[in-house]
Write a structure and sequence with these properties.
This protein is α+β, with helices and mostly antiparallel strands. It is 28% helix and 23% strand. The chain is built from 6 helices and 12 strands. The two termini are 28 Å apart.
């Protein structure tokens, strides 16, 4: 009886190795999709919660909390390119992007809805045999490092109305000549301290995080919160919120329409687990 557990573990490990070798020896119908990733090391950072927060019916800064990533994660070094997304379209797994400019293969794909981004992640997972997904807002913010902008309202000054401070900042950022809105080729904005390219460049990126509207008590605690997953957080030079977009106008609703020209995709790759390997082996042998 004492030898059964080690023998079982050894047999399982050996079977996994053999299965992996068999998969590697199988001729591929076409070359696997090549994606360059960066390992974002574990760490902690101060994270301002996304969404709209009200106190006494006036907008206030969202609360901050410390977020810790104990194991780190892998993220695409670059945004998904027009050429890469085009291969998903050619396979019939993705709908054509709505972008109306910059169709070069070395440009980041834009004009993609949340559904498009999820479909691309599913296609890439099937093509590579790996697990790809959109990042959460927390993951994206941590990976952005020094390029992350705090979306707090800022100092009060002479203005008591928080909405007026928001508008003043918006005018400063979006005024004539304030920024170049034309998407740029991959790598144009360089690398951040975590070796990720174009973080907080002029193309925003989808996340899985849902929009939240919350009310704070006098002591700052959240007393009421409503989550709307028809609107997702998009990350870029500042945090934004975008509806999922449904191209078929007959479906009705405010989400019908085309995704904007400055919204693209960057994915996270989940690391395989031993349990997932055993499950895959079990499926192959059934």
């Amino acid at each position: 009886m004492k030898l059964m557990i080690p023998a079982t573990v050894a047999a399982t490990a050996a079977a996994l190795v053999l299965a992996a070798g068999a998969v590697a020896r199988q001729p591929a119908e076409r070359p696997a999709e090549q994606v360059e990733t960066v390992t974002v090391a574990p760490g902690s950072f101060a994270f301002r919660l996304p969404g709209e927060y009200l106190k006494a019916d006036l907008p206030v800064d969202a609360p901050q909390r410390v977020v810790t990533f104990s194991s780190g994660f892998e993220m695409m070094k670059h945004q998904v390119s027009t050429a890469g997304y085009g291969r998903c379209v050619a396979d019939g797994a993705c709908e054509a992007a709505d972008a109306r400019r910059n169709v070069s293969g070395e440009m980041p794909v834009t004009g993609v809805s949340y559904r498009d981004a999820v479909a691309y992640a599913g296609w890439l997972s099937a093509r590579t045999g790996q697990s790809w997904r959109l990042p959460t807002d927390e993951e994206w913010a941590f990976a952005a490092a020094e390029r992350l902008k705090d979306d707090a309202l800022g100092p009060r000054g002479d203005e008591d109305n928080p909405a007026a401070r928001w508008l003043a900042r918006y005018r400063a950022e979006a005024g004539p000549g304030a920024r170049d809105t034309e998407p740029k080729p991959l790598g144009h904005f360089g690398l951040n301290s975590k070796n990720l390219a174009d973080m907080a460049g002029n193309v925003w990126e989808w996340t899985t995080t849902c929009y939240v509207r919350a009310r704070l008590a006098r002591d700052g605690a959240v007393e009421q919160s409503t989550e709307n997953c028809g609107v997702r957080v998009v990350a870029g030079s500042h945090r934004g919120y975008m509806s999922n977009f449904i191209r078929d106008g007959r479906s009705g609703g405010c989400a019908a329409g085309l995704a904007p020209d400055n919204l693209g995709i960057r994915l996270v790759r989940d690391r395989p687990s031993i349990l997932a390997g055993i499950r895959k082996l079990w499926t192959r042998t059934m």
